[in-house]
Amino acid sequence: MLKTTVAALAGKAARRAARLRGGGTGGSALPGLVAEKIDPGFLSHALADVRGGIVVVSGTNGKTTTTKMLVAVLRAHGKTVFTNPTGSNFTRGVISSMLSEKLQRGRLQADIAVLELDEAHALHFGRAVAPTHALLLNVARDQLDRFAEIDHTAGLLTQLAAMTTRGVVLNRDDPFVNRIATTLAPGVDVSWFGLDAAAADRLGELSEHDSREQDDFVPPAAAERDGLLTPIDEQQLQITFGAEGEGGRVGPVTLRQRGLAAMINATAATSMAKHLLGSGFRADATEQALRTVAPPFGRGEVVDADGTPLELVLVKNPAGFTVALGTYGSTPTATMIAINDDYADGRDVSWLYDVSFESLREQGVALTTGVRGWDMALRLQYDDVPVAATEVDLGRALETFLADHRDEPKRIFCTYTAMLALRRMLGERYDLPEMGVDAPDTTGGAA
Amino acid sequence: MSDAGTSTRDIPILGEPSGSALPADSGHEGKGEIHLVHLYPREMSIYGDLGNTRCLAARIRRHGYVPVVHQHHPGQPFPEQAHLVVGGGGQDSGQSKVEDDLERIADRLRGLAADGSAMLMICGMYQLFGKAFVTVEGKTLPGLGILDVTTRGNEQRMIGPVVLSTDHGDVVGYENHSGSTLLGAGQAPFGTVRHGQGNNGSDGTEGAVTDHVIGSYLHGPVLPANPLLADALIGWAAEQATGGFEPGDLDDEVARQAQTRQVRRLLG
Ligand SMILES: [Zn+2]
Q1: Total structural domains within chain A
Q2: What is the pTM assigned to this prediction?
Q3: Are residues A176 and A206 in the same domain?
Q4: Within an 8 Å CB–CB cutoff, is residue B177 touching chain A?
Q5: Are residues A258 and A114 located together in one domain of the fold?
Q6: Do A331 and A418 reside in the same domain of the chain?
């Protein structure tokens, strides 16, 4: 116990030091490293007083958005929620965020913890602290260097579910996720989220084209707590609980993010909230929260560039890029695509061939950039998408893009490190808030 | 093994026009029809390997020929004509789903290879085209034996960007494999490693080539950024199909930029 207090203090000191060096707080792992070194049991001690649940959100795509939405919904119900809001989805990132909270004798004072963790770190976390609940979103190809195979990634989520003590919320429509239901220990409570029957034909937009066929597992018919999504338009949705709405409805509600992916994230978050809150779940509070959640940086963040909107869209894998193009592809907008191949981007650019770029054909692409800018141009050539120019240097490309398309809406699809670099350049130019810090008006409706 | 989990429905090959699996209408054969077969596109075309098929079909068209793009799925009859056969990498689960079928069509594939059909086998299918695969546990699984190579399962994966010298010039790609492959005494490698691991990380060889059959670990997918290699395969296939190859005049400037930048960057 004393050791935990010391660890917390040391961690806090490291966090202050990191801040003073100007590193900001966004995803810094150093303080977490310090606290973990001093007390390897830090996590379980720190979470010991969190009685309402330790909820892990995992899966390949949509973790950050879903986590933000779930936290907002729970807060709108009056809960004190601890979360790791910076998209730092590693265990140490969780500890770092803990250290920015008020701890009492090394213990976090919150009703519920909602933690976004990537598939591998979710297991690492689970070994330290068994999650009470897990919300499992999807399995897609991502960062293959690390996980090697999609079956392996699916296996990680299955193991995470096996560690979970109370309840699991699963995606009905993801063949890798829905079958996890067949592997759970008897006492674990399962509920589901997914698309309603009328929207099921839109599943193709979300599934990646190289995913392999699975033995079919058919989840049970939707019950009272299972949320089904009905998209109303690009940004507006309704969630029905149960096949006939016997569990009630949420919406129609308009999100601050466009597209089917964001709506599915909202459905996942809402279904988990209902699972956690039971009869305390309120549709009006949920709607209010969903309405206010801002997109995380790089997930459709809009920058005011000299009076016209510039959208930054992070693309990480075939499923994500396909969804992003489905969301944005058809609106007439000047487009730049920035592809790097550092470790955090995925070093193998093969995945670009598992994405169809045909929706950009008519409009064309103004610039391809990044270390693999020419590979992107080559990929577009095979889909007969005209590319006006290629400039591998991100800074020069951004200059040209902004200058040549001054009066048009602009959009940049970018891999992770390209996004960080471009965001920094745009931040200097247009005086934007620091990465990883929410704009002040957008934190979900805390009670 | 049961057929559970396999399907004989074609999967989308991104960008391929609908009907590209059908023969040309009469009078529209151009310089001739080239039949292209992708082996097990569902189970064995990980990491963008379908991009090779897409690249070949597109370039066959640009050269003035008509590609007929077949997908061969487990349990299906093998296409009657096959001038160009392509296969890719898979997960372990994918490989186990195709093994029985591969045995069934083995003689046909060996016959096509002996007759001079062009073949490009990447990663997992390269291993299966070899003589044998020895698992980490020491179990030996026989392969097709079209290429004289033997692969051993490895704990350590070989992952990263690759540059090779080959008969078709510099070749760039990306390897991601746990098998370590050794060439038989008379077996020619596909290339010499200038950056990366190659067959086994120690003897400087990458892949294997016998007549018109190329095996390699390179994803990327390998063909778009290495058009000389793509055209070598198309040329061999055109000879099979029509008795000769009359290449068109293709603009490969973007591919040249992508390739040379990657070579310069990795070799310094
Ligand atoms: Zn491979």
Answers
A1: 2
A2: 0.77
A3: yes
A4: no
A5: yes
A6: yes
Between CA B218 and CA B46 the distance in angstroms is 12
Tell me the chain A residues in contact with residue B46 when contact means C-beta distances shorter than 8 Å.
210
Q: Is A183 exposed, middle or buried (0-12, 13-18, 19+ CB in 10 A)?
A: exposed
Rg (CA), chain A: 21
As given in the structure block, the two tokens for residue A83 are 């979360």
A338 C-alpha to center of ligand 1: Å? Answer: 25
- Residue spans of alpha helices (H) in A129-181: 144-147, 150-163, 175-178
Cβ(B90)–Cβ(B40) below 8 Å:
yes
> In whole angstroms, what is the distance from residue A212 CA to residue B53 CA?
17
| Interface contact A339, partner B, CB < 8 A | no
pLDDT computed for residue A10 by the predictor: 59
- Structural domain including A177 reads 46-292
CA distance B67 to chain A (A): 15
Instruction: Look at A118-127, A157-166, A381-390, B182-191 and tell me which has the smallest mean pLDDT.
Output: A118-127
The CATH number for A139's domain is: 3.40.1190.10
Residue A241 shares a structural domain with residue A306? no
pLDDT at B249: 96
- Residues A380, A253 share a domain: no
Here the CATH number for the domain that contains residue A425 is 3.90.190.20
Report yes or no: A48 and A101 within 8 Å, Cβ to Cβ. no
Task: Report yes or no on A188 lying in a domain.
Answer: yes
Phi, psi of A269, deg, nearest 5: -65, -45
State which of A123-132, B42-51, B75-84 shows the largest mean pLDDT: B75-84
Instruction: Select from A388, A419, A438 the least CA-distant residue to A67.
Output: A438
Chain A hits for B261, Cβ within 8 Å: 374, 392
- Work out the mean pLDDT of chain A and round it to a whole number: 83
CA dist., res. A115 & res. A134, Å (int)? 10
Which amino acid is present at B176? N
> With an 8 Å Cβ cutoff, are A358 and B15 in contact?
yes
Q: What is the pLDDT of residues A240-256, one digit of tens each?
A: 999 889 999 999 999 98
- Nearest by CB to residue B42, choosing from A212, A351, A371, is A212
Same domain, A53 and A145: yes
Residues of B in contact with A144 (CB under 8 A): 47, 176
Of A292, A319, A343, which residue is a domain's last? Answer: A292
Task: Give every CB contact of residue B79 below 8 A, 6+ residues apart in sequence.
Answer: B35, B37, B70, B72
A261-292 tens-digit pLDDT: 899 999 999 999 999 999 999 999 999 999 99
Query: Is A9 a member of any domain?
Result: no
Check B46 against A210: CB less than 8 A apart.
Answer: yes
Report chain B's C-alpha Rg in angstroms.
18
Phi-psi category of A278—alpha, beta or left, where left has phi over 0 and alpha has psi -120 to 50?
left
What is the distance in A from the centroid of ligand 1 to the CA of A114?
36
In a domain, A173, yes or no: yes
Do A303 and A221 belong to one domain? no
Q: Considering only alpha carbons, which residue of chain B is nearest residue A377?
A: B254
For residue B179, give how far its alpha carbon lies from the nearest alpha carbon of chain A (Å). 13
Phi-psi map region of B36: left, alpha, beta (phi>0 left; psi -120 to 50 alpha): beta
